[in-house]
Amino acid sequence: MEQPRTPGRAFAGMEPLAAGLVCAAGVELLVLRTFTRTAVHIPGIEALAGPYNVVADFGRFAYYLSVVLLIAALPALAWRLWRSGDLAARVAGVVVVAFIAAAGGARWGIVSGYWIDAASIGAVLLLAAVGPSFAPWRQAAVAGAFAAAFALSGTHSLAQTATDPSLRFDSGGLLTPAEVAALLFALGTPLLVMRQPVRKEWLIAGAAAVLAYAVFAGNPWTTRILLLWNAGLSGSFPSVVYGAAAGAFTLTVVALFRDGRRLEAFGLLLLLGGGIGLHSTYQTGLVVAGAGLFLAGASAMRPGRAPARSAVIVTEPRGRAQARVAVATPRPSSSPR
Amino acid sequence: MNALRTFIQTRRRMLAAGAVFLVVAGFLQFAGANPAQSQTITLTAYPSDADPAAPDSKAWKDALPIAVPLTAQAGTYAAGGGSIPTISARALHHKDQLYVRLEWTDATDDESTARVQDFSDAVAIEFPARAATSVPSICMGQADAGVNIWQWRADSQAGIPEVTTIHPNALVESYPSTEDLFFTARAAGNPVANPAIGAVQNLISRTFGTLSPAATQQVLGKGVYKDGKWSVVFSRPFAGPDVDQASFSSGTKTDIAFAVWNGSEGDRNGRKSVSAFVTLSISAQKLPGTGGGNDAMVLTIALLSLLGITALGVGLAVYGYREGRTS
Questions:
Q1: How far is A117 from chain B (nearest CA, A)?
Q2: Which of A192, A89, A77, A98 is nearest to A133 (CA)?
């Protein structure tokens, strides 16, 4: 059996699983983490207890489905990272396996809370650390900004989990830099779009930015606590910053999908679903899978590591018979639609 | 023809895999078996040899605090609050009794509500009720998952002040009736108006509008205001008197959330600073102390791995860059 030698080709088979995981995690985020936490504020909701419970159960099912898909996706990702033949990708694969082992150990009580917290922060930082050799600088920078936000926020928790008092410190000051790094991550994602966005993409991104700004400005209390619960962000900066971040992120995801760079788009969406900081091994797993898929998808964009080059022979019947041979590098998956 | 056959086989494989994922997810939900592990901040209650009932007890010296961020109250209307950014929490257990010590910075000591424009400083802890089948909504619980709330109020602890201390020039001619009937709030069963209940109210709730006093009031609390900080200790026996109240035991975990009312900022009712749920672990083991655990080793391994792989990543990047320039 032929070993795939190019990262882009090695990860093509991940797309259906990644798509399923993104859909399930998205439904879980919207229904379980957002709707059920917000709906309880509706006056008289107890009169609608029946429909509410049905929706809540559906959200819980989406959560369990997302967990199952994550359990399938992480080993598949690690295996494909290993098989890609790239040394840095192999290191990333080992990091993913180490996270799976630590999360499993924590669930069964073999690994302490401090171990899994340290392993989670380490896994995300390590994936970002191999990024520069694995993906182009733009993707490595975006992944690095997210990893910094995750690590700063996670260290805040880690500092309070240590049973050794000498390892404890006042970590509250880490949360603001974490918020800044998370916003830089979102605002920096348009770096990934290596072309001029088209009008439709600007419109969608603008709508997302206006909607996010309106929600933040309209009911900052509920929005900010939902942001804290769901994504680990305190929402302490002006609403316009979060509106701009939402617009930039949406622009990037839409453009990546239109360019056929689906793995990168799925990776970004999983990072959004996981959020920054330590919540649960499920959310950290989404971040690890997201970072892995994002860098795996990005690896195909690195000059000299593109998917298998194809030789295109163009013959042009002119006055004197001649053939022009061109080596074309196709876009990672498909051309822009 | 072969391409069509391959396409159909691929679709069949994907459908089969999808069906397996759905069935496994349904089974996990039915069984309530969550494969994920919580990673929220954990407040660990270690066993204590000394009685930690007083906020300034020496027993609290070695208890490890956690700093929990607070935000304004969420709601369909602008409840406000949020003037207290963080609360420090410690926990211990002693003779099958849970003790939680909360400390926060507050520039003003607000313990009188005798004037209509005054509001009291207060703090509350929320736990899932013993009967809760899932983590309840932090906002007063939900129908299938109630909450148990312990609220300490500075004004309840201070008691009702003499009118003349609030209004020195007031003249009270006479108020001879001392029966409860003449104290209308107390007669109506308002626990805040009943000094016999003490500084802490033990409350239960299953959603908005259902907050009510628990059948038994056995939660104790004592607060001290010193150097611009409130320190309050709550305590209650492990065993919950009924399924609507929280229950604890050594070696188990539950959820815990906090709320603080800043009286000088007009905080009352829903206007307060609230946290998200964090984990409360009732440890059966004694606190390991400095160098007693393996946390330092974990941190060292993590840092060495990080440095090593970062060096590898940078090295490979430089190598790849040079290769790219020479080819």
A1: 7
A2: A89
Q: Which residues of A156-187 are buried (b: 16+ CB within 10 A; e: fewer)?
A: bbbbbbbbbbebbeebeebbeebbbbbbbbbb
Computed from CA positions of residues B169, B173, B177, B183, in that sequence, does the dihedral angle turn out positive or negative?
Answer: negative
Residues of chain A positioned with their CB less than 8 A from the CB of B305: 122, 126
Q: Please report the residues numbered 238 through 277 in chain A whose beta carbons come closer than 8 angstroms to any beta carbon of chain B.
A: none
Torsion of CA A268, A271, A272, A275, to 10 degrees: -160
pLDDT of residue A323: 42
A234 neighbourhood in chain B, CB within 8 Å: 69, 71
Map out the domains of chain A as residue ranges.
7-328
Nearest alpha carbon to residue A144 among A39, A289, A294, A15? A294
The label of the residue with tokens 């393996």 reads B294
Residue A237 contacts B, CB cutoff 8 Å = no
Q: With CB atoms and an 8 Å threshold, state whether A61 touches B25.
A: yes
Are B310 and A61 in contact (CB < 8 Å)? no
Min Cα distance B293 → chain A (Å) is 6
CATH, range B40-282: 2.60.40.1190
CB contact under 8 A, A282 and B289: no
Residue spans per domain, chain B: 40-282
Quote the DSSP letter at residue A11.
T
Beta bridge partners of B237: B97
User: B23 at the A interface (CB within 8 A)?
Assistant: no
Helix (H) or strand (E) holding A221: helix A220-231
Enter the tokens of residue B244: 């609507």
Per-residue model confidence as pLDDT tens for chain A (337 residues): 334 344 456 677 788 999 999 999 999 999 988 888 777 667 676 677 788 889 988 999 999 999 999 999 999 999 988 888 778 788 888 889 989 999 998 888 887 788 889 889 989 998 888 877 777 888 889 999 999 999 999 998 888 887 777 777 777 788 889 999 999 999 999 999 988 999 999 999 999 999 999 998 887 777 877 888 788 887 888 999 999 999 999 999 999 999 989 999 999 999 999 999 898 999 999 999 999 999 888 877 665 554 433 344 444 444 444 444 444 444 444 333 3
At residue B74's C-alpha, the angle toward residues A153 and B141, to 5°, is 95
Q: In chain B, which residue's Cα lies nearest the Cα of A14?
A: B14
Distance of residue B209 Cα from the nearest chain A Cα, in angstroms:
9
**B56-62 contacts, C-beta under 8 A, 24 or more apart:** B56/B224, B56/B231, B57/B233, B59/B92, B59/B94, B60/B90, B60/B92, B60/B101, B62/A165, B62/B287, B62/B289
> Which two three-digit tokens encode residue A260?
């056929």
Task: Enter the tokens of residue A131.
Answer: 């990024």
Written as six digits, the tokens of A212 are: 């996010």
Size of the A and B interface in Cβ pairs below 8 Å: 212
DSSP letter at B212 equals E
Euclidean distance between CA atoms A104 and A108, whole angstroms: 6
